[in-house]
Amino acid sequence: VKSVTLYAFDKSGVLAYQKTEEGAPLQQEGYRMRLDEIHQGEKADYDYITWAGLEDNDAFMVPLLTVGKSTKEDLYCLLQRAEGGIVNKDLEDLYHGQVDNQSISRVSMDDIVVPLVKNTNSIRIVLQHVSGDPLDVNQFNFTITDENGKMNYDNTLLDKDVKISYQAWYTGNGNADVEGDNSGTPAINVAIAELAVSRLMADAKPVLTVTDLEGKEILKLDLVQCALMY
Fold first, then answer.
1. Per-10-residue mean pLDDT, the chain, length 230
2. For residues 3 and 56, is the Cβ–Cβ distance under 8 A?
């Protein structure tokens, strides 16, 4: 990622500290964010929340918070969408991390490790006709619907949001020859589509649908069950 933003909340859940680093420092091996400014006195306990990949990322946004005033409940991450909840572009990588009740002071030399969870996913669909006949990807529409456009401070999904309709940002036709086939005709012809989606949850119900240009349903799959099967 190109940026890391850290939020530190005190025991009452109020924002005590915020820091963003981006660019070259993140490319250094063994990268650490120094927190020299966080606390001037004795050790204090904080809950740390991290969003990584937000800077220069027009796909997601978080609200501006105020130290000493904003709380955890004010922090969320929103997937930007067009009218009707449509998202039809590739998504920059987005990560979330959280560790609670960690002690630190200005003179502390301790490391606090924040494990990150990748929230963005790339889905590739490959259609092949059972008869072997060629397919034209331009004759199909590819859509994934889910209610995962708004993530809370703890990375759970907030249900107070519209249903997101993810559409293919890339489509193409492909073919391949089978070794030993001298007919000169490609043996495999496929239609390919790629979609980028926000966080997928095992207890959610994202649906993958492929239709023709007239809206006739070609296939409909429970995306989570399909992913877990693979």
1. 93 94 91 78 84 91 96 96 95 96 73 93 92 90 96 93 95 80 70 96 93 94 89
2. yes
